Amino acid sequence: MDRYNNNFEWDDRGETFSAYDPDPESPTEIFAGSTKLPMSDNLEDMLQALFHWLDCLTEIRRVVDGGDWHVHLDDTDVVWDEEQGWQMPES
Question: Which range of residues forms the domain containing residue 59?
Answer without folding.
Answer: 2-87
